[in-house]
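Action item from last week, closing it out:
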Amino acid sequence: ESPPSFVTRAQYVDGSGYENIVFIAYWKSQNAFDIWWQSSTFSQWWQEDERLGGNIGLWREVFTVPVRRFETLFSSKNPTGAATLGKPFDKPVLEHNYWGGMRDRIAASDTDPLDSVIGDSLPTIQLVESRGKRLNSAIPNNFCLIRSGQNWSDSSDKELETYLDVVRPNLTAGMAFLRDNPQETGCASCRLMDETNLDGSAASQSFGLALFVSMQHLEDWSKTHPTHLAIFNSFFKMLDVHEGQVDLKLWHEVLIVDGEKSLCEYVNCHPRTGFLPYFQQ
């Protein structure tokens, strides 16, 4: 009852070398999610004590986001993610193509600076014994989540070759930098995932999913850090090579998290999984 309105499957290897298989599911309302969780056999399976043993860890990160604390942007008319929950739109987005456009697209920013509630940096990492345990993390209010995707399913062989040679190495390096330098960047978690079809077969898409202490931290990295500028500039180099005619589809969504209505749970996970090193209950 009340299934998700949209589901994406992906996989990645985390900074500790563990393979992760991920399903990202979207519900239109908190009530719809609650009905599903209370009625599904999945939630019963999840809560059984058997999940605390074996060699597999399980984690879920549930974020509730009011529409006024959300924005999305596409280079094509192919919405994905949270954009599939709303009404279609086909007019150009005016708040675009300048530093600060992301913030201007978030309605709540008109009256709220959306500042960090924990200061400018993450807490000191504290590793705890987490194997065989069910642990929760409380995410502070105003954490900023970005999911930024790349879709090359319609790209020609020559365009794909340029993307893989010119852009992808910089994207991989930038995501790894965020993952490995949380204190410097304020990025608590960064995962570069290869998207798959729901049956696990390969798909010609990927996305980075990162959570920052605040939107300001994401803005600072995007505008000034060499790792992001390298991604940015390599994409324009790709455009130059193909004279502005590319079929690569780019998109992103940015969510300002409501900490009080969010939940992160880690079951039999290694101690560096997700937010466990920073926020424990």
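Closing note: The mean pLDDT is 94.
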